[in-house]
Amino acid sequence: TAAEPLYKRVLLKCSGEALMGAQGFGIDVTVADRIASDIAEVARLGVQVGVVVGGGNIFRGVAVASKGGDRVTGDHMGMLATVINGLALATSLRKLGIDTEVLSAISMPEICQSFSQRAALHLFNRGKVVIFAGGTGNPFFTTDSAAALRAAEIGAEAILKGTQVDGIYSADPKLDPHATRFDQITHAEVLNKGLAVMDVAAVALARENKIPIIVFSIHEKGEFAKIILGGGRATIVRD
Ligand code: UDP
């Protein structure tokens, strides 16, 4: 018999950079389509999938602040960037026949629904993939923190953090040949060792709410579904 999914509801964190592919800026539709196909695969297993999208491929608030501009305005621009990415990913999912809704932390009713926990749960119960855009809706936060926050709000059983590499390493494996990879690690160890997985606020919030974080390569086609079915290559953060 086929393997059963380990989870009923999960939260995928997809960075903005994952959507830009090799071009260095913006959205590569081919790459967005590929990531959408991975999400579709998991949705078709009957798993309820929420996705928090980043915005770093378009804009980061610090880019304004570092040139003497107002950080809050920069962060507003960054949050708007996540909405653009959310709409792009929703478009890719709908092309695959996956019913998808975008909920934004910042109200823009002409474009998408506004986030509320009730709206999200209602959409999951109707079998939709839900994309959470606009980050937390607050400056000085990141979409990693938004991922931990939304995961807690929707009662996700795990946060799937799609990254450039296949898990958490003791150092950046692209720079340090001696970097070792963890199969499993606790939230506390991630924080104490200062491992760059998600920002501190995100890891702390996940720990507080006892939500495991599964770190895997977003570039590995089909990996998301493999992990949901108990296989695949990833580091799991749990206490
Ligand atoms: N941002 C914010 N509040 C949030 C989430 C995001 O102000 O709750 C802004 C911030 O300026 C950030 C930008 O949106 O730099 C893009 O998000 P992030 O850097 O987390 O995207 P990613 O690195 O995942 O692509």
Rg (C-alpha, Å): 17 Å
The number of strands is 11
Helix count from the secondary structure assignment:
9
The low-pLDDT segments are: none
Q: Taking all residues together, what is the mean pLDDT? A: 96
Structural class: alpha/beta
Shape: globular
Largest sheet: 9 strands, mixed
CATH superfamily: Acetylglutamate kinase-like
Ligand list: uridine-5'-diphosphate
- The largest beta-sheet arranges its strands as 4-3-5-2-1-6-10-11-9
First-to-last CA distance: 31 Å
H-E string: EHHEHHEEHEHEEEEHHEHE
User: What is the CATH level 1 assignment?
Assistant: Alpha Beta
CATH T-level fold name: Carbamate kinase
What does this molecule look like?
With 239 residues, the chain is α/β, with parallel strands linked by helices. It has a single domain, classed as Carbamate kinase. 38% of the residues lie in helices and 18% in strands. The protein has 9 helices and 11 strands. It has helices spanning 16-20, 29-43, 61-65, 71-95, 117-125, 143-154, 187-192, 200-208, 223-228; strands at 9-14, 48-53, 100-104, 113-114, 129-133, 158-163, 168-169, 181-182, 184-185, 213-217, 235-237. The strands form 2 sheets. The protein has a 9-stranded mixed sheet, with helices on both faces. A two-stranded antiparallel ribbon has the order 7-8. Helix 2 (29-43) crosses helix 4. The two termini are 31 Å apart. Homohexamer. GO terms for molecular function: ATP binding; UMP kinase activity. ATP binds at residues 13-16, 56, 60, 163-164, 169, 172.
Please render the helix and strand layout as text.
Elements: E1 9-14, H1 16-20, H2 29-43, E2 48-53, H3 61-65, H4 71-95, E3 100-104, E4 113-114, H5 117-125, E5 129-133, H6 143-154, E6 158-163, E7 168-169, E8 181-182, E9 184-185, H7 187-192, H8 200-208, E10 213-217, H9 223-228, E11 235-237
Parallel strand pairs: 1-2, 1-6, 2-5, 3-4, 3-5, 6-10, 9-11
Antiparallel strand pairs: 7-8, 10-11
This protein binds uridine-5'-diphosphate.
Residues 15-17, 54-56, 60-61, 74-75, 78-79, 81-82, 135-136, 138-139, 141-146 line the site of uridine-5'-diphosphate.
